[in-house]
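Subject — a protein and its fold

Tokens — whole-number codes for backbone shape
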Amino acid sequence: MRDIQFIDANIGYVVGTSTAKMSKTTDGGATWTVDSLLPATTYYNVHAFSENRVMVAGSVSSTFNIRFTTNGGVFWNDAAAGTSTIYTLAFFDSLVGFAGSISGRAYKTTDGGFTWNQMTSMNAPTSSTFNSSYIDGSTLYFLDDDSLVLFHLIVVIHLQQSNIYQQVNPNK
């Protein structure tokens, strides 16, 4: 399994390999049901806004790497944030969100995930893979797990100044 999120004490989601895809629990994790409507691919991140609105991100399948539902999984919408695997999703609110990928690439949506645009001025090393993210107030942190350098790169994005990116080396 790659990621887990609970929206309350009973309802939760877990994503993983192409066999597991995304599974949902409604009894606090005692039982899990695999969503059979999602394509078989590896999913790395799940973001649940509510029981009806859930987004998953992962490997590219049929040119899409993000899928989301607004009706609890009855139908899944496809979206593309670039052409590579998406490892992490983070949202400031129901519309503004970010997706982290490989080659130092990150993407932004302002329409709740229907469309994604590459953030072109981040200047992150192309060896970077943004595999984790965290939001604190109006600040987004992308963590890079770059095994080719001796430090982890943290890219900080401020919501109020969305074109200003700060790279932090926590080992300095």
Remarks:
- The chain is about 0% helix and 45% strand.
